[in-house]
């Protein structure tokens, strides 16, 4: 079958036309992939910036497709374990080291497939799992967001960030975002955003605070120099939830601001099986539609990856593998 | 009456022999102070490193003494408010800007006095309130410490740190500490400590990890360069609770370590009325005795302060004001 394989650090990925999969384990089922979405994770793996990278593994964590006569999507988290608090040491994510979804077929444990919410098409369904799971856990399981609270989401055009914005609006929070482009600020208005700021402005944090005050919850994927600004933008007793670190390490973190104001800085990554089920319920209940930025055929995986790297995308970059 | 007043930044404190207090508010009662304890807070105020410092205010947050015929100790937190999560904006601490406890008498709201646990003498009782409240909230209300867990306390000779160690041991946790002196490492053995390390060793964190592994909960009062080491010493899903920042700002904080391991970095300061009540219950139930380093008369407040600043103290530095 056709599949996008991680080859090695020199060659990057290749498109294989006749990849032979091994046998299935007893608990595994075969899903015929209609659409699969890219994640930052795929980009990091191809840059060698991920632990435990192995050669000749099919990339891709997100997919929607057919299992028998059912439209299903896949929870990409394998062996999370029994704790809501943290994943087990056996936890891993579909698409490295386990074969992933940029492929005609994918094997997954039966417990990892769920019916596609009926209001979503293939591309939208493929755009949901990893980003939706991450967003749900960040906002609710970790951030304890309540209706009426004020939440700030950094990097408002990314896949996870957009789902955070949509989910937070859905439950009746006031939602604010930072983005790196004026065009994206405009597009965020379609999602009912309550305020935006361009993080390329030197004093974006002061501008934001002056216009909108402080926040009960901040969802961040950047780290770096921004974290100390986010600490200054958090209400006393408020939460900062970190799910990524694209800007690297953070300096100048003041213990005084953290302890006197009883702040909580919490990490989150992926989510439990329960988080995944609750995320799907929320998406169905509120008719949330993940934003698809663009769709490419498997043969144009390289272009899709360039689109993701460009940071010009707004929502998820999706690979279409089977039409129906 | 005699009292230690904060005078101003040039003069520091003075001992007044005939300080005239104003009238009491209807909800206030008069406590005759037998003993009062020093806190880092007093040192910071005298160095000008505290918000809202005003002149001619009696210093001191901790006291035990007589109210009518009752032996009482005082919760130094005023107007915490109704949230367990964070203090109200009206919150303040006895001893600045409200007149404090280094004085023959102190006025406090009646709801702030509690019976002295019967196993404590005056000095031990005076050593308990601020440090005990801070330690209790850090360990339990914030850190969610459970029996059998492993907790690391930094700066193991300080008043709050010692009470953390005692309380954590009392509920059946395994307790480890960093200290800056070999003498203190020895003394910590009397408290059943499970392991110690000298933080003046360059690679104390590696030494500690090699000997004792990682920790469910870390209680820190230093910040600075240590925080990134503490992050590396925390178990996946673990908590770091920060109640002080004597070493200043922290650099090199890795978002990846925080998010992938689902860590929680939480600030805490003082505690609610409920935290105070629960702290007293724990102290009574387990017969915990706060460690008194040394006792000085009011006339020797300067010497007491020097003792605190020396960092050679082990436990609380106490001022004795009335003998009985």
Can you tell me about this structure?
Two copies of one chain form a homodimer. Chain A is built from ten helices and 18 strands. The first copy, chain A, has helices at 40-46, 122-126, 129-142, 159-170, 182-188, 204-212, 226-232, 255-260, 273-286, 301-310; strands spanning 3-8, 12-16, 28-37, 57-58, 62-67, 70-74, 77-78, 92-93, 105-109, 113-115, 150-153, 174-179, 195-198, 215-220, 234-242, 264-267, 292-297, 316-320. The first copy, chain A, has two domains: 3-128 and 290-320, Medium-chain alcohol dehydrogenases, catalytic domain (Quinone Oxidoreductase, Chain A, domain 1, Alpha-Beta Complex), CATH 3.90.180; 133-267, Rossmann fold, CATH 3.40.50.720. Chain A is an alpha/beta fold and 324 residues long. In chain A, helix 3 crosses helix 4 (159-170) and helix 3 packs across helix 9. Chain A is globular, with a radius of gyration of 19 Å. In chain A, strands 3, 5, 6, 9, 10, 17 and 18 form a seven-stranded mixed sheet that branches. Chain A has a six-stranded parallel sheet with strand order 13-12-11-14-15-16, sandwiched between helices. In chain A, strands 2-1-4 form a three-stranded antiparallel sheet, with no helix packed on it. The interface between A and B is large, with 39 and 38 residues. Strand 16 (264-267) of chain A pairs antiparallel with strand 16 of chain B.
In short:
Helix content of chain A is 28%, strand content 28%.
| Number of E strands of chain A | 18
Oligomer: homodimer
Order of helices and strands of chain A: EEEHEEEEEEEHHEHEHEHEHEHEHEHE
User: Can you summarize the main beta sheet of chain A?
Assistant: 7 strands, mixed
Distance between the termini of chain A: 17 Å
> What's the architecture of the largest domain in chain A, going by CATH?
Alpha-Beta Complex
Q: Greatest contact pair?
A: A-B, 39 and 38 residues
Rg of Cα set of chain A: 19 Å
Let me know the CATH homologous superfamily of the largest domain in chain A: Medium-chain alcohol dehydrogenases, catalytic domain
What is the CATH topology assignment of the largest domain in chain A?
Quinone Oxidoreductase, Chain A, domain 1
Poorly predicted regions of chain A are none
Mean pLDDT of chain A: 96
Number of helices, where a helix is a run of at least 4 consecutive DSSP H or I residues of chain A: 10
The amount of beta strand of chain A, in percent, is 25-35%
